[in-house]
């Protein structure tokens, strides 16, 4: 079953542009990772320092393996310097009704 991941990144005040640029650099590679179906980048209309990724993965484990890869590379540490709080992830099953 397809796993929908919502990843919310709340940037420090004024860090939205840098955060968006950093995530935008990573997304093309992410789209090529095993299990990745699609990834869209969204910016909160009411808070430009909040960036939300809406992702589709073959499974939650594919996404978790990807996050482990980013942690190992140091990418998560780089992102954390721009955030006011840790990223928030929601994993959901796509239900076709």
Main beta sheet strand tally, sense and closure = 4 strands, antiparallel
Structural classification: alpha+beta
Q: Helical element count?
A: 3
Counting DSSP E segments of at least 2 residues, the number of strands comes to: 4
Quote the beta fraction: 25-35%
Overall geometric form: globular
Q: How much helix, percentage-wise, in residues?
A: 25-40%
Measured distance between first and last alpha carbons: 14 Å
Overall pLDDT metric: 96
Query: Which residues sit in consecutive blocks of at least 5 with pLDDT less than 50?
Result: none
- Overall radius of gyration: 13 Å
Physical arrangement of strands within the biggest beta sheet? 2-3-1-4
H and E order:
EHEEHHE
């Amino acid at each position: 079953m397809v796993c929908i991941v919502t990843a919310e990144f709340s940037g420090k005040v004024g860090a939205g542009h840098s955060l968006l640029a950093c995530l935008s650099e990573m997304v093309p590679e992410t789209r090529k990772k095993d299990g990745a179906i699609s990834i869209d980048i969204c910016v909160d209309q009411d808070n430009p320092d909040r960036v939300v990724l809406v992702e589709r993965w073959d499974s939650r484990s594919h996404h978790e393996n990807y996050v482990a890869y980013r942690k190992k590379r140091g990418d998560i540490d780089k992102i954390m310097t721009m955030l006011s709080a840790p990223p928030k992830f929601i994993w959901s099953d796509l239900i076709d009704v």
